[in-house]
Amino acid sequence: MINGGVRLSYAKRILYVDLTTGKTETKPLKEELAKNYIGGIGLGMRLFLDNSKEGADPLSPENPLIFITGPLTGTMAPSAGNSYAVVSKSPLTGGINESKAHGFFGAELKRAGYDAIIFTGKSEKLVYAWIDDDSVQLIDAKHLTGKSPQETEETIREELGDWYVRVSAIGEAGEKLVRVGCIINDEFRAIGRGGMGAVMGSKNLKAVAVRGTNDVNVANLEEFTEFVRTIYERMKGPATRKYRTLGTPENVLVLNALAALPTRNFSQATFEGAEKVSGEYLNERYVKKIIGCATCGMRCDHIALVPEGEYKGTTSRVEFECLWALGPLCGVDRLDAIIEAIYQCNHYGIDGISSGVIVAFAMDLYENGIITKKDTDGLDLSFGNHEALVETIKRMGSRKGWLGDVLAEGSMRAAEKIGKGAEKYANHIKGMELPGFDLRTLKTAALGFSVSFRGACHLRSGAYSPDVKGKVDRFKIEKGRGKIVMDGEDLYNVVDSLILCKFSRGVMYEGLKDMAKYYTLATGFKMTPEELIKAGERINNLARVINIREGKGTREYDTLPWKIMNVPVPDEGVAKGAVVNQKEFDIGLDDYYSVRGWTKEGIPTPEKLKELGLGNLVSIVEKKIGSKN
Amino acid sequence: MPTIHEKKFVSGDPSKCIGCTVCEYACSMEHEKTFNPTKSRIRAVRLNPFVNLAVACRLCEDSPCVAACPRDALSQSEETGIILVDEDKCNGCGWCIEACDYGAIQLHPETKVVFTCDLCDGEPKCVEWCPEEALDFTTKDILAQKARITAVKKLFQEALKSEK
What we know:
- The structure holds two protein chains of two kinds.
- Chain A is of the alpha+beta class.
- Helices cover 39% and strands 13% of the residues of chain A.
- Chain A is built from 25 helices and 17 strands.
- In chain A, a hairpin with a 5-residue loop joins strand 1 (13-18) and strand 2.
- In chain A, helix 2 (40-50) crosses helix 19 (481-498) and helix 2 runs parallel beside helix 21.
- The radius of gyration of chain A is 23 Å and the shape is globular.
- By secondary structure, chain B is an alpha+beta fold.
- Chain B has a domain at 9-56 and 117-163: Alpha-Beta Plaits, CATH 3.30.70.
- Chain B is 30% helix and 18% strand.
- Chain B has six helices and eight strands; from the N terminus they run βαββαββαββαβαα.
- In chain B, a hairpin with a 2-residue loop joins strand 2 and strand 3 (51-55).
């Protein structure tokens, strides 16, 4: 027992590590904060707001980096028992960022007795944090310089002499402040999006290694176990079928048929090579084993192995998003090369989605003569050149040469540096690269992605779902879409604060009611579905207010990439000519702000904030509302 | 007198195990009423994504752990084959841990005496919970039978096909 109190599934303790001074201390987690923000991204963003200063550069010592678990982490709860999130200001967007990962690391952190670790400052030299239950040390990591996250994990386990130590680490990219740098735990599980690896690198923090030996208890073991048993049973059923069988690469043919599979940097919306990079083809020829995370009854990790050819022996976990970004979007129709490219992303520690989108951007510039072989040191960046794809990933991951260095800044900044109209080829929102859905043919998604607080993201609202499932007319934005996006966001804020894996969201047959039950049985804090969704709304408003504080949270930042609004889909068929026009986009934004209770400028009103118990943030928005009028 | 053919134990199938550690959580929940893999009597090992196996006590004949105990704290049940620990006699010296080739007997982090699989009174919870059905509550004789049948099936693949 820690702090003398009863510890249920919250550890009720936050660890503060000042990397500048090396000082560490723990403070209790306030019960009210836990209930209002749940955990995961909600609590993480609240802790961020309370521990950061306005206007800090994301890569400066003033930007705190927060590792945080969920209220179910460490328990046997499938998918929520094994997770953690990282929250900080993003070096891509300049606004708030959160990213989640599953595997084994999160549960270890909770067992060590912490709900969260807040890293502040900057270490003088490269170190890793060794958290052995109550003991916290910063250990010299000079010998880990340039090592991949996987090598780092292995080396740390060996030198600490404990095979069960869990490690979350950055690669060379994070050390070199590559803005799409990610953090990887348990070999291939990534805190992928938003450049959290670069923030970690800016602090000279190579890794966090944890050993936790404490019990994690729940309030009502008997009922909790019964409920968990039900969830395990549901996991064997239809709700997880896709993830257990073909996996997310099933999307390749689904989206291709809808003309929603962005190809060659959004030059087309269908890919003639789709069959060759489909989930069906992948599983038949490359997937060797399907494995899973701690405490999960569903197995989803499709581990692929290249059996022959120039990439023979390469192994990667393959999901749709990275497959798409490093495949169709770059015009590459070879799965062996895509598996190699994913491997290289994991090796350098860069986000596979952003990386693919950035390579595709560079290829588009090359095809259009904006950059030439002189800029690429002789590399032929034509669409479809898989060797160039792999080489560019390596250069970007290590900032090698002009090309590697400029692309490491992310597509928005790279376009600014290159000039010559390059910004028209950069497919990002708020600075973060688009995931694999063509927003010209999935327009609820277009609205959802544009208002997402962390930039282009399909998992902030799941707004692509009604489009793909045919629940709405996907070729237009109209009144009513704002509510769809808002409801999706609020629900996903709850999911990401409990840190339930989104692949398992379907096993919550009764939605919020199931989630509230889960939370109450584990934490002992009574929670209703209504309170839970209110927390989801609170969290979205909190994120928006943080972005407003950082000057990134108003209407002019809720945008779409140039191509989405100016280049109609050329592919023959139902989608030909589709493009998002300003008028419908404005209708969508107005509708969304209105259902949110925000001003026309997209600023939460003081009344809305007070209603959500965010009254103490009113001064931030009042300043902004004043200046806009 | 029970024989080797009758003693059931928990055996992991490496072709099915994915190293998810659900067994560890189920074990600690059953025995310790908490979630804590360091208190689990079965432990999963993932060497890499392809190589995973959960390991528990295999009820050896003439168990080396029992033989290694200098304090006569360990004995083997004649009926079930499980290793019984006399917690008053055990002083946590760890000779038995060294003697076990499988790491299946461990020092309990709190009681500081050794603990190992007790088969949950004949209904092992890890087997019940394993999502991959990778754990068998079986006997060595049955394992050998299964292996033989698999081998023969492989040898006579063609003949079996033509029968259909």
